[in-house]
Amino acid sequence: MTISNPLRDPADRRLPRxxxxxxxxxxxxxxxxxxxxxxxxxYDLANRGLLPPGFxxxxxxxxxxxxxxxxxxVHDAVKEHARTPFREEVWQQLAKGMRFVxxxxxxxxxxxxxxxxxxxxxxxxxxxxxxxxxxxxxxKFFPTVxxxxxxxxxxxxxxxxxxxAVIEKPFxxxxxxxxxxxxxxxxxxxRDEVFRIxxxxxxxxxxxxxxxxxxxxxxxxxxxxxxxxxVQITMAEDIGIGGRAGYYDGIGSARDVIQNHLxxxxxxxxxxxxxxxxxxxxxxxxxKVLSAVKLPGDLGKHTVRGQYAGGWQGxxxxxxxxxxxxxxxxxxTDTYAAIKLEINNRRWxxxxxxxxxxxxxxxxxxxxxxxxxxxxxxxxxxxxxxxxGQNALVIRVQPDEGVTVRFGSKVPGTALEVRDVTMDxxxxxxxxxxxxxxxxxxxxDVLLGDxxxxxxxxxxxxxWRILDPIEKYWDSHxxxxxxxxxxxxxxxxxxxxxxxxxxxxxx
Length: 507
Ligand code: BG6
Description:
Layout: H1 10-13, E1 23-27, H2 32-47, E2 56-61, H3 67-81, H4 88-95, E3 98-102, H5 108-125, E4 131-135, H6 142-151, E5 163-167, H7 175-188, E6 194-196, H8 204-214, E7 228-236, H9 245-248, H10 252-270, H11 279-291, E8 293-294, H12 299-302, E9 303-309, E10 311-313, E11 316-318, E12 336-343, E13 353-358, E14 365-372, E15 392-398, E16 402-410, E17 418-426, H13 427-430, H14 438-448, H15 457-475, E18 481-484, H16 491-498
Parallel strand pairs: 1-2, 1-4, 2-3, 4-5, 5-6, 7-13, 9-18
Antiparallel strand pairs: 7-14, 8-12, 9-12, 10-11, 12-13, 14-15, 15-16, 16-17
Helix pairs in contact: 2-3, 2-14, 6-7, 7-15, 10-11, 10-15, 11-15
Bound molecules: 6-O-phosphono-beta-D-glucopyranose (BG6).
6-O-phosphono-beta-D-glucopyranose binds near residues 237, 256, 257 and 366.
């Protein structure tokens, strides 16, 4: 297996990481994710010269398509969503390796055709028997698809080649279902050949958490309970659920993004320095953090869930969650969630980590704010520091990617007054290199067999261990609090922090 180190020696980094002979089969290829993210990412990788010349893409779905219809669909998705310019010669090359297999997941004939298609591509395109199967389908179909792959000999690679499974979230809906899914997947694919997607780990700014913490000397000495007051991790979206009612209702915001993205951000913020950036070493550190997470005793006081009501956003009137198409009008699904967690270890004991997420909030922003304690003593007249807040280091995950440090500075003038100022690092200003889109990076890593940016099943299970009691509590305690679209969530979330003498940032 090729292992890459995201923080490796710069000389080595100059070598482009190019996938060897390979192909990708996408199940659920007619879905939104495939059209908006996967197909464009594959084209962008090809356009950057990071795919092998014979790279092949096979779509599998029920739709009555021929190869040409599939290729046209990919073409349109690429034109609409790719990040790199369209180049006819790159497209033509890529299109040569495109095939479509029509069928149901339970359809034996279709899986036989898939096997023949792969064999044909090995001959025609030189894919060398190396194929990844991307399951961009609801989890209830995972067992059928992986068992069909096994039954039809698709999981037994020819000697010297590989077969991998790529699995989209949600990985289960609680600990028990996640364990069951793991069991089913691992019956068929060896552990090292299973890649669970958490696309936040593919984001440049998320990988930068490790660089910021472990490539510098000045942050780590204060990155602990002696200096940090609390940490706020926010993932706010201004969009509603769009056309995703079928997926979202009954799942809700906490299962959708806290169980995976936010807990991963928390783990990376809190881990000890790994011995290396080998996947096993990194996972071991993340697991230590996740298994040390303690839930607050009173979940009623330290968690809040909300549901958006109608309101105005960007000058437009938008419907409330219960009025969205396809939503049960009595649904109790959360579109907002805020929770307080603590990490029971020497570095973090007593430091709250507040995690919040929501749809239809004030604006789209994801950030990690490490908020420091106040200076133990302020040798100024009291009026001088009235407008002085707490120092903070904010990792701006998106948009406007970068890092901000907030600290106090003298206000110009004859009096000695101190006010908050910020010092900013912005990716766009400091680097000329462009960041690959998260899915580009992750698909390339799958083809390279590099597991560093993929959560392991123990992490997934630990995350459900954390979330399950909260979901259970919410299930048996009334309804989510309403908040008008375009605001920063329910009042209860502000009250939750106010009880701790703190307040949410308004990013
Ligand atoms: C997905 C969630 O994992 O992340 C979506 O299922 C959410 O509900 C999306 O909208 C947000 O991703 P990003 O990269 O736009 O922050």
